[in-house]
Write the structure tokens for this entry.
Amino acid sequence: MEFGYKIKNEWLLDDEVTFLNHGSFGATPLKVLQAKEEIERRLEREPLSFFADEFPVLLKESISRLAKFVNANEENLVLVENATTGINTILRSLEKELKPGDEIITPNHVYPGIRNTMKFIAERTGAKAIEFDIPFPVIDNDKIVEIITQQINSKTKIIILDHIASPTALIFPIEGIIRICKSKGIITIIDGAHAPGMLELNLESLGADFYTGNCHKWMFTPKGCALLWVSKEWQNRINPLAISLFHGNGFQEEFAWTGTKNPSPWFSLSPAIDFYNSLGFEKLREYNHKLICDATDLICRELNVTEHAKYDMLGFMSSIELPIKITIDEKTTMELRNHFMKEYRIELPFHTLNNKVFFRISAQVYNEIDDYKRLVSALKDFISKIK
Ligand SMILES: Cc1ncc(COP(=O)(O)O)c(C=O)c1O
């Protein structure tokens, strides 16, 4: 299959919009949406039989397909709605492990929602939620490992690490960090919200205590499908946020049923993986990564700004500093997004880090370099009007 604009009609994406934000919510291919609809129809035809007979079979099948995709043992994997639920599930279950003064640490590249979860847990337990700086631009992976190692002390109880950070798009060298943290008895939680479908995962060999990741971003499932991997030693101490019918029946059974919901995003895993495989993992990764590197080169050259990360620290996203001085408040990033959409029909997310504004570009198989050339023109126009 040829990538670029020729393939864009596999999605419902608006032709009038230059869509450079696959990262925020993904985009589900039409074929996968149709499969999801078919599952919903099956459910509505005979709801009782569906939940009693088909549900367990479809759930097992979906977990089995996903397990192969992320190299996990099926029995260590459950499905949740999103990475937010995954992290909340883990931290709420770990509350009983925390005592006043314990530290939960994370780099300052953390996703704002997870920052709030950490603070919430800290308030309930008396533990401290601590964010530490990872400079951006970063020097290299060794420096990241060194900074994180320096943060660890006898009070550090939990580390939350993004596999791929939201505001900076950096791929964190989690393998080395997990190894060091484990050797010091620190509980390791990996927020892999962006990782499934972008990185080749091997959840079993990572050695983390917990890993959660979205399938609805880069794996092409409909929204509401995410994985939660829990190491064997923690499985009997982890419960879903909603306790329901199968409480006490063991890790996978408890998570299988957390009350009635529409399970069609979960059961679209097989069609989503089929679609993904039809594009070819290697081909997709090569295309998206090359496109993000070329696009970053182009934008940095044209705007006369420097890259903030080496290309081997990036996957299919890249964050670039907006080269203007503006006053930042909590509305800034949304106002900038709205402005680029309204004025230029470009869908682009903005983030702030250390009082600087960054825009984040994504590359997906339906994008071409011309999308980023349009962005360069828009950015030049925008900057000239601000100055
Ligand atoms: C690193 C990170 N964690 C968590 C989330 C939250 O994902 P969701 O809204 O699917 O729960 C995001 C969303 O972009 C993210 O980038």
The chain has two domains: 5-28+280-386, 32-274. Residues 24, 82-84, 111, 113-114, 162, 166, 191, 193-194, 214 surround pyridoxal-5'-phosphate (CB under 6 Å). The CA atoms of residues 115 and 129 lie 8 Å apart. The chain has 13 helices and twelve strands.
